[in-house]
Every structure is written in C-alpha cells, then in structure tokens.
Design brief:
The complex is a heterodimer of chains A (about 350) and B (about 500). Chain A is built from nine helices and 21 strands. By secondary structure, chain A is an alpha+beta fold. Chain A folds into two domains: about 230 residues, Rossmann fold (3-Layer(aba) Sandwich), CATH 3.40.50; about 110 residues, OB fold (Dihydrolipoamide Acetyltransferase, E2P). In chain A, strands 7-8-9-3-10-11 form a six-stranded mixed β-sheet, with helices on both faces. A five-stranded antiparallel β-sheet of chain A has the order 2-1-4-5-6, with helices on one face. With about 500 residues, chain B is an all-alpha fold. Classes of the chains: A alpha+beta (about 350), B mainly alpha (about 500). Chains A and B meet through strand 7 and helix 5 of A and helix 8 and helix 9 of B.
Amino acid sequence: MTGVVVDGVAKAFGATPVLRGVSLTAPAGTLTAVLGRSGCGKTTLLRIVAGFERLDAGTVTLHGRPVAGPDRALPPERRGIGYLTQEGSLFPHLTVAANVLFGLPWRERRRGGARVAALLEGVDLEPSLARRHPHELSGGQQQRVALARALAPEPAVVLLDEPFSSLDAGLRADTQRAVVKALAAAGATALLVTHDRGEALALADQVAVMRDGVVAQIDAPGAIYRDPVDPGVGALVGDAVLLDGRRDGAGSVSCALGVLAVRPDRQGRRGAAGPVRVLVRPEQIVVGAGDGGVRARVRSRDFRGPDASVELDLGDAAPGTEIVTARLPGDAAVAPGDDVTVTVRGAVTAYDA
Amino acid sequence: MTAAAPLRVVVASLAALLALVPVGYVVVSVVVVGPAAAIDLVWRPRVGELLVNTTVLVLATSSACIVLGTATAWITERTDLPGAPVWGALFAAPLAIPAFVNSYAWVSVLPGADGFVGALVVTTMSYFPFVHLPVAAVLRGSDRDHEDVARALGLSPRAAAVRVVLPALRPAIVGGALLVGLHLLAEFGALALLRYPTFTTAIYDQFQSTFAGPAAAMLASVLVVLCLVLLTADVALAGRARQARVGAGAARRRARTSLGAARAPALVAVGLLVAAALGVPLVSVARWMITGSSTTIDPAALAIATATSIGLGLVAAAVTTALTLPVAWLAIRRPGRFSRLVERTTHLGNALPGIVVALALVIVAIRVVPGLYQTTPLLITAYAILFMPLALVNLRAALLRVPPELEEAAHGLGSRPGAVLARVTVPLLARGAGAGAALVFLAVSTELTATLLLAPTGTATLATEFWGPAAAVSYGAAAPYALTMIVISVPAAFLLTRQVHAGAGP
C-alpha cells in the first residue's frame, strides 16, 4: 500500500520554476525525509501535498485517493492530513487542551479531557500541561503539542515542515525521538522536510534528496549515504572528500590517497577504465604512524570531543595541492606538523569524470 | 529611584496631578452637593433620555465601526481587490477630517440628516478608521501558518476565519471600538450640529445656561462613570486572550484570496464607502467655498485664526512634551510602583471628554486660583491634560529604543544627570518626541470643546471661528475654516497611520 504518491509535479511562481517534475513514493506507515538546501523547492512540494498551493502539472495521490492534479485540487481540510510547521503554530489564544482538540468535531471537543491526556502522553508530555497556554511552554514542548494536535483527528498522512529547526540542540534530540515514536504509534505516513542531513538520515525510513526542483535520489538512509548517485548528492547527505582519480577497470581506482577498492554500482558493474571523481567519506580515512599508505603532513586539527577533524596535506612534492579532511577519534594523537601515513578503510565510490 | 533625578520626579508627579484634576473635580462636586441633592439632579427623565441617547449611539456606532473597519481591513489586506494599497490609504484618510467638520458637511448637504440616523452615519464615517487601522496592522503581521494548520485540521476557510483569525483580531477590534466609544462620549461639535443630544452636548448647554453649577457637575459625573464602564468593558472583552506570537519564523508571503465574481460588487462597495467618508465632506466644503452665498473669505480673520491655532498648538506641544518626558523616563528607566502609577494616571486624559476637563479647570480657576479663568495658561493646561497620552506613547516607544548603556557611558565620562539628559537622551529621543509633539500640535489646532469653554474672550481659533457660523447655519462662512483644518490635519492622520502600523498604540 502506498501512502503518498507524487508524480511529475511542476510548479512555477510567476516566471520562476520551483518544481520541475518531482516524483516520489512514500510507502504507507513510513517516514520519508525530503532533504535539500533552502530554495530547492522542498517546502513548496510539502505545501502542494497539503493543498495550500496549487500545482501546474503532475498529480498527488494520498492513500490511493487523487487529491491534486492540474485541473483538480481537494481543499486541505478534506485531505485528511496532519500539518506541523517550523514554529508549531500553536494558537496563542487557546490552552494546550483546546489546541490539541482543535481539529475534532464539536461533540468530541466538549468531552475531551481523557482524550487530551492520552494525546499528550502519546508525545511524551505531562497531561498536567493541558491547562497551560502556549507561551508557557518551551519550544520542544510546543512542537510536541503541535504534533499531538495534528495527530488528534487521526490523519493518514502527516506533513512536517522543518519542525525541529527552531529548537536548540539539547531539546532537538528529545523532541525528534518523541515525534518519531508518536508517528510510528499512529501508523501515519509522514513526509518530513528538512535541510539537516543528520536529522534526515537518523529519523527517516527513506531519504529523498531534492535539488533544483527535482528529486535527485530517493533511497534508504544507509544506501543513499554509502552509494549516492552523483558527487553532489554525496556531498549533500554527508561530508565528502572528492578527488580526481583513474579507474583501472578491474575494481580499483588510483588517486592521491593511493590505490583504493571501488564499490560496484547497483547493477554490480565496476565501470570502464578512465578518469573518475572519487568520493571518500572522512571517517574512512585512517591515519597511522609508519608502515604502508600515503605520506601526509597534518595541517590542522579541530578537536570536537568524541572525534576530531584533521586536515591532511597529501602534496608531498608540491605542498598544498591536495588537502583532504579526515575524521579521527578524539583521542587520536596527532598534532599539526606531524608526518603521518594515510590509508583508506573500505570501498569508495567512483563517478565517470 | 536614584536621588539624582528629583526634578524629574517632581515634574512627573505634577503631570499625574494635573491628569487627576478632572476626576478630582467630579468626586469633590458629588461630595459637596451631597448624596441626596446629587441623586435629585441625576435621577431626572432628562438624564435618562441622555443616557439612552448616549448608550444607543455608542453601541450602534461602535458596532457599525467594527463591521466596516474589519471588513475594509480584510478586503485591503487579504483579497485581490484591485488597488488594495490605495484603498487602504483612503480608509485611513477620514482621520484627517475632524468629526464636526464631517458633520457640518453632511448637514449642509442633507439638512434632514440629523437625529439618530444622521449621528450614526456621520460618526461612523469619521471613526471607522480607528478599527480599520489596528485590524489591518494585525492582519498584515499575523501568522498565516495558523490558518494553514486550521485548514489541515479539517476546517473550511470560513470556520478557520471564525475560530482562528477572529480571535487573533479580537484585541485590535476591541481596542479600536474602545477608541470609537471614548471619542463618541467626548464628541460635542458633530452631535450638536446634528441636534442629537448626549451627555457632552447637554453639559455644554447646561454650562451656557447655569455656568459651572452643580447640574453640570452631576452630568459630568455620569459621563465619567460611562467612560469607566467603557474602559472596564474593554478589559473584560479583550480578555485573557494571549496574542504573543510563539516562535519567530519568517513570515511567508501568501497569495491573497481571490474575490472572483464578487470583485465588481466589492469595488462598488468600497467606492461608495470612500464617497461617503471622504467625498461628502470634501465636495461639500469645496462647494461652499465656491458657491456659498455667505462665503465671504476674510483673509485677515482667517490668517489671525490660523496663526492663533498654530501658536496655541506649538505652545501646547512644547508644554505637553516637557511634562511627559520625565513620566516616560521614569516608566522606562526606573520601573516600579510609583512610576507605573504616574504613567497610568497620565493616561487618564485619553479617556476623559474635553468637556469634563474644561469644566473642571473652570471651577479650579474660579475657586482655587482666581484670575486664571479665561487665560491662555489655563487653556494650555487643558490641552496638556487632554493630549499628554499622545506625547507619552511616542516618547515611551522612542525611549525603549535608547539603550540605557548610552546614558551610563555618559555618566561614566563625568556628565551630571541633567547634562546626560540634554546631551544624550533628548537628542536620541528627538524623533519620537517630535512625532508626539506633532500629534499634540495637530490635535490642539482642531480642538473645539475645551477651547469654547476656556479660551480667553476674543480668542479666535480655526475651530471656534468655524463653529460660530456653522452652528448658526452660515455654512459658507464656515467653509474656509473647515478647509484650513482639513489641510492642517492631513499630517496628523498620516502620523497616526504610521504609529498604528508600527504597533506603538497606547
């Protein structure tokens, strides 16, 4: 059963095209993250699925029901969706309880006390918050109340527009956990728009990377991180070291980091011999003291506690020509100026140059 | 409170005491007259009639202003009405036409336009901008995500408007309606011309016949009670509704609601409204200027009246600003019970009708400080009491934007308190103080009620020179003064519009 099907959706604001044929399918009951830089059209896509914007071409189907096409648009209130905004958008004139019950029919709102408590517990909030007003809550609590409100009418589809971006780091992790848990418990199909790749990879069942108004790749988080379709997607979903290299046609590539194993593509092909761009993740780079590997000099070290980001100069003959960044354990004993050797752990990805 | 600013405390206390004079007059009058006589004076059919007249007009006009002001705000801010920004400016423009000039325009065009219907139409046309402006400001700045969320939760656009948008507008609507109500209670000229007696016109008549006797004082006390009722109703209706925007996301530009087939009727409706609110007064004044048989423009008299109005306005603006500067400074820099009390008290003038203030000062001048009656200082004092809130609101907003660290830096460089005020605070406040002073100036230059009661004999201002012939049905003779007052009021209307847009309302 498919939850959300977006097919060939195009949208322009005036003469500026924002979406140029977006297609993605979100299986029912899963969470799909739409990841992209600001301005890539991801929020517009979400608002089209919600029904706040009309589309120019393409269709949107929610749980088998067509809701938007070039000549048809079901109004948002009849799509059976939940919608979570960046700031939560709690109604400031209503208490938490009244906010949570807002979308229910009048009869159910009248006797909603137990319902409120259950909904608040569903998002890991104390039921005693029900009588408060939104401004008396922390940002994370506001977002959870907003989610409880969105889930109260039991929508089949929940649309989340960067709901964690305004929270500070400490609150964010807890709120993310509570939201994902509540979404899973509700069995809703969720679309999460975000520009935070860590958030997308950590929370989603599948990640759709949007770029220039199209979906560049849609895949499970592990797959999209390990095997991006092009270097751009690779750099969008994680830190990437990109080097020029040469593929030998037998499963290896030679580049500034030495001769490395190339991961076969999904069809199991190893690719023809020739010039390529090589994508290495910083955590694949291993720094040693002597035996084997490529010689490098440590240029700088950014200590971040559990790990450290280390800039390595590979240009032995001509210093400064090849700089790569490696992620090392925080306790790795390297200092700027050290001469080290560098090896690469695991297979890398190569793209025809 | 620092010991370094005794002068400011003294001046601020003086401002608060002045603002208390009218209320003190009412209380003392009731006590002096005695409860039995007071009840006799108040418990009369005539007072009942005035009460009904006043209440009915306040309710009817406020309701009409709420409907018109909210509808015009919505149509100019949220729909694709062609030329919406221009219409928005036109809906604020009636503020530039003093209500008594508007009244004169209607009566002189439609002599039958008097009584309740005339009063309702004229006051609504004059006062609906008080609702339009704040509601439009809220609609412009409001969080449209709330409407989206309500729609996503299954509400139709109409239901979302009722359950989400209207509650968000409520404080603006209630605040605007309160202003309308207070202006109606204070309105003298417009209603006198329309022969619709209310407490204010009755107090004036009583003053003309029995001077500042107990009868006038008792009517004034009922009027003050009505003001208090309105203020209390405002607090109750605005309610605990919390409107603080939660979070601070960037407001998104949104499509306006398409009027569709309603576009043509909507254009006709807004056109008719502008014709009634602006067209009638402007055309009517222009017509009397050109064709009126009694139109005899005496340039010298007009020049004298204009100069007098401007002179009074300038002096009043300076005095009022000087009185309120310490109040604003205490409120912002030395917050506390005393500062709050002084600030609140100073705002009283906003709620008290000019006729009560004038009456109180007449009594004070006769009983307490003989020789002050019918002098310019007394008139200036009345203006100050009435218009201190205008200056205070602007000074307060300006002072909020001056970081106290600047004053501390000046102290640190060795300046004494007075020097800090003069060399740092006042220059930084100049803009806000200027806007407040300009509003006071413009309010004074078209003030009628207090001027009629308090101006020294022989003093001719634009308002009084207009009033004589207008009340005597010499419409043509009044026209040049009406036109001059409209011209002078245009900047005031513009300033008020900007102030509401900036959200610096009282």
